[in-house]
Design the sequence.
């Protein structure tokens, strides 16, 4: 059962067998989509979900996302995602998430930044004007104890991988799904790497959309032991997303 | 809430925004994983799930899967998956699925065939001997009104695509996830193709496992308007899976 109060909604999940990675832990990409879907349902319950926006030819665009996990649910574990809006600015809104285990103990957090755009003009919508500031009535100033998404700068030109955008990359917006970029970035590393360096934090700054057939390049800075920054670009010149993976200290 | 009787379990789902394709319909791959997870949870509830098997160094291996949909849930639609075991043979079990809309009206069906193997010897386990035929006590002979998975023969040698197995392909068994093969096969076609030829049925015969780093080739027979057969092989000689996509008649 899901719990909803004025500002926050909590959604219950089960870590299902075929959503687990090779170590029997919840896949980061499955968690990422659960986080976005929780945001979508929370907004829908309050009248500012994608479907309500679509009637006005508006939509939400994810600008930044950071997910930081101290532990990942294991197969058959229950877990919960609680989400709320921390701030509403003119052109952006901050949305937070707590990921908790079945007993309600936090095991991770996420921060996100969203913009509303008018898809006919591609211009941002003033969130303080949208339905007389309707969204701001749901603000809860609770914060989460993880760093805000930071500035990621990749100055290398080393193309570590290429990916041509396919059918399975595309979501309801007609563009590459936000979490699919994470999947492609995670695929730069092997299961053996993750066994030695469990992932602690994923951070993405979404810069531009990409479309079916686009050729994406994944450009990597020289890796550090605990961190990898990656630029995803279209062709050689158009940045699409800046990503950072932060690993736990090596095991053993 | 989920309903369980002796033989059948029903699981409730919501078609969440970021599980939708470009037409706002549930993605086939998301449905496929829900189907496998429903099987996993149904088995787990009755003492023959992967975790119980793992204690004996056994596991389930999916041998065949066919999913046929008359309609796909749209964004925000509820839907249900009911699953049960129709037959238990010495080395195989047939498991069926009904996919129903929020009112309980069937919108699609699936059939699957599974084997239990001992992962130390890689040999099949006699299902009629396993815990004195425990599984057979849950048989329900209800069938589903779709064709059984048939024989798929690709005699072409036309390599339509290649895919090197990556981290995101690997699931809890350490091999490529069954539904990831479906994703790679669906990626042979464009969104424009699916807009014209909505997918009606997906069928896979799983022949061999593939592992991280394997180079998979997708070999296609000359396509027919309503059907495409695809062989997935490792290198040039080792078949991994035989797949068939069946499309609805073209629109317009």
Sequence:
């Amino acid at each position: 059962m899901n719990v909803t109060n004025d500002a926050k909604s909590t959604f219950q999940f089960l870590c299902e067998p075929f959503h687990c990675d090779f170590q029997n832990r919840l896949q980061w990409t499955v968690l990422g989509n659960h986080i976005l879907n929780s945001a979508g349902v929370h907004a829908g319950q309050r009248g500012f979900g994608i479907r309500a926006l679509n009637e006005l030819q508006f939509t939400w665009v994810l600008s930044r996302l950071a997910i930081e996990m101290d532990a990942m649910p294991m197969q058959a574990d229950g877990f919960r995602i609680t989400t709320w809006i921390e701030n509403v600015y003119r052109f952006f809104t901050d949305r937070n998430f707590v990921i908790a285990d079945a007993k309600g103990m936090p095991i991770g957090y996420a921060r996100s930044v969203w913009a509303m755009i008018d898809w006919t003009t591609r211009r941002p919508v003033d969130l303080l004007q949208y339905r007389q500031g309707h969204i701001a009535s749901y603000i809860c100033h609770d914060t989460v104890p993880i760093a805000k998404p930071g500035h990621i700068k990749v100055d290398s030109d080393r193309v570590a991988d290429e990916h041509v955008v396919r059918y399975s990359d595309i979501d309801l917006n007609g563009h590459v799904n936000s979490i699919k970029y994470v999947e492609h970035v995670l695929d730069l590393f092997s299961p053996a790497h993750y066994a030695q360096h469990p992932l602690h934090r994923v951070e993405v700054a979404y810069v531009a959309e990409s479309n079916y057939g686009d050729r994406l390049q994944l450009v990597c800075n020289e890796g550090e032991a605990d961190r990898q920054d990656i630029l995803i670009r279209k062709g050689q010149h158009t940045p699409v997303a800046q990503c950072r993976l932060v690993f736990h200290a090596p095991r053993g």
About this structure: The CA atoms of residues 115 and 145 of chain A lie 23 Å apart. Chain A is about 15% helix and 35% strand. Chain A has a mean pLDDT of 93.
